[in-house]
Amino acid sequence: MGKHFRFDDGGRAEAGYRGAAGDCVVRAIAIATGRPYQEIYERVNGAALHERTGKRKRGISNARTGVYRTSIKRVMKSLGWVWTPTMQIGSGCTVHLRADELPAGRLVVSVSKHLTAVIDGVIHDTHDCSRRGTRCVYGYWQAPQGGRARMMVRNNGQSKNPPPTSRRRPKNVVEEPRKKKFWEWLFG
Known about the structure:
Layout: E1 5-7, H1 24-33, H2 37-48, H3 69-78, E2 82-85, E3 106-111, E4 114-119, E5 122-125, E6 137-142, H4 148-153, H5 182-187
Parallel strand pairs: 1-5
Antiparallel strand pairs: 2-6, 3-4, 3-6, 4-5
Helix pairs in contact: 1-2, 2-3
């Protein structure tokens, strides 16, 4: 069996950051996308500005201390990456953090309370988070195959969907009477 873990801080030290931090989201995205750590750090904090707070969600995401799922989703979609879930409610663990159970390529893998980068089956992180190959994978973000995100937008100048038709009805068509809504029926 080959090497399954490689130490990688994602360019955090090069960006001038020191000390311990809960920056696994920024680190994993920077490693998997190959973008600079500082760029991803700013993207994550920018996405956090759009978050709402509530009773359970006390504050907003922070690239250094932790990021909520909504901000992760916003950042990854802005980069054009695609989410593939590997678990559903009640399904149990079907995919583990091992090379033989994950697809080849660059992935940002979601495990319990952590995100890590996996490149061709090798975990790139500051610690081995695989729990000896038993850690369950909730899902993973994967780069689009062959520029799929660009094709959906452009598609050689032609739209994938036909242009919308006019919503006007011809004058000679008789409409059926519309059904009353519940509150119209009740009050009136």
